[in-house]
C-alpha cells in the first residue's frame, strides 16, 4: 500500500519562528514552567490543543465571504440549521459561541443541588458547568479505559453495569441526564462503540432519563466505528453518524473540533419545550436564536466544515497521522497510551519519569522538557490539572499522569510529525536528567491555566 498522503494542498502558510535551546530556557523560566503562559510565536510545533486550531479550507473561507450578518433570520443561520438537521436528524438547533456556552445553558436547566449527571468521562468545562449548577458529575468509564498501556478497541465506552447500579442506588429521579463524550477526550481520545451507545440508550429509556451526546469529535468516533466495529465496514460515515445521533435526545458541540472552525458551537435536540427554555437562556448571554454568540460568517464556516469532516480520505489521513506518531514512539520504547486516540497522542508521564514523585508533577516536568528540547508545546493532563488537596494539604493525585500531544487538524505535515517524534525520543534518552517542579503560585479552580512553578531543588 502507498503512503497515506495529506488529502489537501496548501494555499496559504504561516511562518514558524525558530529559536535556540538557550532562548527557550529563558522563555520557560519567564513563563514559570507553564506552557499556557508561553507566547505562541515562541513555539515551534504547537500541540497544546486541537481546539480552534484547525486550518480552514478554501471553501470555508469562501463561505465566510458569503456570511449574512443580519441580526434575525440570516440565510447563514438557515444553512447552518439545515446542515445540522441533515447530519444528526435532530430537529431543533441552537448556535452558541463555544461548546461550553452550550453546556452552561444545558446544565442551568438540568443541573442543581442533589442531582447527578452521568457520563463515560466528562470534559473539564462540562464538569465545571455541572458543578457550578450544584449537581455532581460522575464518570463511569469502562474498565479498559482505566489502563492506559493496554490496548482495546473502544476504551471510551461507558460501563453499563456501573450505570445500572448507580441509577439503582441514587434513583432515576435524581439523574436528570446521561451524557456520552465521543470520542472520550479526557479519557485519551478513545472512541465509544455503537453497541455501547445503544445499550446506554436502552438503560436510559427504561429509566426515562434523556441521553445527550457531547459530540465534539463525532466524525473521528464514526471513523473508529467503521474501522473497528463489526457490521459497520460497509456503511458510509454519514450513515454511521446518523445512527449515532439517532439514539440521542440531543447534543452539545464545540465547532472548534470536528467542524474545522476557529470558534463556535451548538446545542441540538428533539424536545420543543426544552429548546424553548434553552433559547430563553441563550438570549440573555449569547444572542438572538438565529446567531447565538456567532457572526453569520462563523455559521457558514461551521456548516461547511461539518460536511468536510465526514470525508473518508480526510478521516483516514487524520486517524492514521496520529497512529503514525504513536507507532514511532512505541518503537523507541516511549510509554504512550494505547491505542492512539483520535486527536492526540498521550505520553504516560509517571512511566516516562519514574524518578519524579507525583508531588513534583512529572507530567508538567515532561511538558517543560519537550519545550526546552525542541520547542514543542504540549499539555499536562494529570495531577496538576485534576489533583486536589486533602484537609492536611496533601496532594490527592489524579487517576492518570499524562502529557497530551493534540494534533491540530490539517495544519502540520509528516515532516513536522517526524520532528516531534525525534524530539520526544531524544528527551526519553536523557530522561534521568529531568527534574521535578514545585508550585509557587496557584488559583483555587482550574489552576493549570495560570499556575506558576519552579524547578525542585
Ligand atoms: C473542547 C470540548 C468542550 C468545550 O468546548 P469549547 O468550545 O472549548 O468551549 C466540551 N467537551 C469536549 C469533549 C471538548 O473536547
Task: Describe the protein's architecture and organization.
This protein has 457 residues and is α/β, with parallel strands linked by helices. The protein has two domains: 21-50 and 311-455, Aspartate Aminotransferase, domain 1 (Alpha-Beta Complex), CATH 3.90.1150.10; 58-308, Aspartate Aminotransferase, domain 2, CATH 3.40.640.10. The protein contains 16 helices and 16 strands. Strands 2-8-7-6-5-3-4 form a seven-stranded mixed sheet, with helices on both faces. Strand 5 (177-181), helix 7 (194-206) and strand 6 form a beta-alpha-beta unit. The model has no long low-confidence stretch (mean pLDDT 96). Pyridoxal-5'-phosphate binds next to helix 4 and helix 5.
